[in-house]
Please model this.
Amino acid sequence: MSECKRYDEASQRAYTARLRAWTGGAETPPLAFVDTYGCQQNEADSETLRGMLAEMGYAFTDDEYAADLILINTCAVREHAEMRVLGNVGALVHTKKAKPGQLIALCGCMMQEPEAVEKVKQSYRHVGLVFGPHALPRFPQLLYEALEKTGRVFDVDEGDNRIVEGLPVRRGEPPRAWVSVMYGCDNFCSYCIVPYVRGRERSRTPENILRETAALVADGYTELTLLGQNVNSYGKGLPGSPDFAGLLDAVCALPGDFTVGFMTSHPKDATPRLFDTMAKNPKVRRHLHLPFQSGSDRVLAAMNRGYTRAAYLGLIDRARAAMPGLNLTSDVIVGYPNETEEDFEATLALIRRIRFDNLFTFIYSKRPGTPAAALSDSVSDATKRERMARLLAAQKEIRAGR
Ligand code: SF4
Model:
């Protein structure tokens, strides 16, 4: 990677100051419209982008036609989300026509996918700036270049994977706040694009997380959520190898009246120690989101999930024993390539046994570049839809019987 792609705080501050001088010279501050797709990590990233924009002197609007800058933070997890993004970006041709000086920028996971970037390059020529999650800390420089240059700016390199602390954040009003504790994922579930677009796992130090959390509590935020793609593997590679249970304990030990939750947990790395830590800390919300994805051992192995059905059930039993009345939610994928009726029945049986409080259900979405995308699939779309309908009906029945 070239030197110029590395984050350098002083130079980004200089770009922020240049943009601030430019926006400060205008009669009214330029307006930014920031739109976010996808998960809580993307919401958190958008709060950082808004913080940077506020430092550069931008104000915010919900009106795409009034905006001088439209910034769309995209999601790559499912094809449907990508189609929505592209549809909405296509429609921005009209806002750009009405306001030719408007800059349209795309960022987020989809912009780390070569095929999507190529599509934007060729077919969405009204988009002036594109950057992936790795380039986010260099947003001041990229925005400056996009405004200064006549050409379009693309920065979709993988970056140096480092964590940048101290970026400005513009959050919503209390009580809720997100705190990222780690980034990336090392799990490579066969269907998932996240490790390819967000990079390898890296954790923030406990000191930085605790400092941010304490400041949030002092600012009146009382419902905190610790975020990571796989929070249960927090701490790998940090000095002293802290774990997530220890971090949760330390957050709860901070003074103040607040609650704390976390997402997302991976069953492979969830431990009894985590459940015991949750149980003994009244500040931890009694909610566990533990995605199981499939009730079939054959499909779990094909998905590279790293646990069995029996291990998952054992975890749930252990968590419930530690926290009676625990609110349990999960994610499940229907129609993974070559899922048999027997595999699907195993998923139905699992949800009937556990009786989740809520279930987030998805039909398998093929993500180019993942191992699962190369599989041929014997299951028709009609069968997948029919299984989804049966799954939803079963979950409805479970909820009605509570
Ligand atoms: S744990 Fe699996 S599903 Fe979750 S982000 Fe990582 S690779 Fe994707």
Summary: Residues 185, 187-189, 192, 194-195, 229-230, 266 surround iron/sulfur cluster (CB under 6 Å). Residues 3-155 form a domain with the Rossmann fold fold (CATH 3.40.50.280). Residues 381-400 form the longest helix (20 residues). The radius of gyration is 22 Å.
